Amino acid sequence: MARTALGWGTRDLARNAGVSPDTIARLERGENLRASTITAVQSAIEAAGIEFIPENGGGVGVRFARATEHEK
Questions:
Q1: What is the spatial distance between Cα 3 and Cα 48, in angstroms, rounded to a whole number?
Q2: C-beta separation of 6 from 45 below 8 A
Q3: Any idea what DSSP says for residue 69?
Q4: Which DSSP category does 46 fall into?
Q5: Greatest Cα pair distance in the chain
Q6: How far is Cα 28 from Cα 68, in angstroms, rounded to an integer?
Q7: Does residue 19 contact residue 34 with C-beta atoms inside 8 Å?
Q8: What pLDDT, on a 0 to 100 scale, did the predictor assign at position 64?
Q9: Do residues 49 and 66 lie in contact, with contact meaning Cβ atoms separated by under 8 Å?
Q10: What domain count does the chain have?
């Protein structure tokens, strides 16, 4: 969801996280990855302005952390 919200393809996310596109594909398939890899991907997404929302009865999700220009 986060990658799509940013308008990024798997290669974009991989480049920003410093991992391979195959690693992103494995992550999106739900395969087990090293904690450091998951942290790198999460950090790249957060640096791009996405905030992860913990489960609060409605499930986990993502949202833009700050208002975009068109929302101001």
A1: 10
A2: yes
A3: G
A4: H
A5: 39
A6: 26
A7: no
A8: 64
A9: yes
A10: 1
Handedness of CA 12, 14, 20, 26 (dihedral sign): negative
Bridge partners (DSSP) listed for residue 50: 64
pTM greater than 0.85 (yes/no): no
In the chain, DSSP assigns E strands to: 50-53, 61-64
Rg (CA), the chain: 13
Q: What is the CATH number of the domain that holds 60?
A: 1.10.260.40
Residue 49 lies in domain: 2-71
Residues with pLDDT less than 50, the chain: 70-72
Do 40 and 19 touch, CB atoms closer than 8 A?
yes
pLDDT of residue 72: 47
Q: How many CA atoms lie within 13 A of 10 on its CB side?
A: 10
Q: How far apart are alpha carbons 23 and 33 in whole angstroms?
A: 8
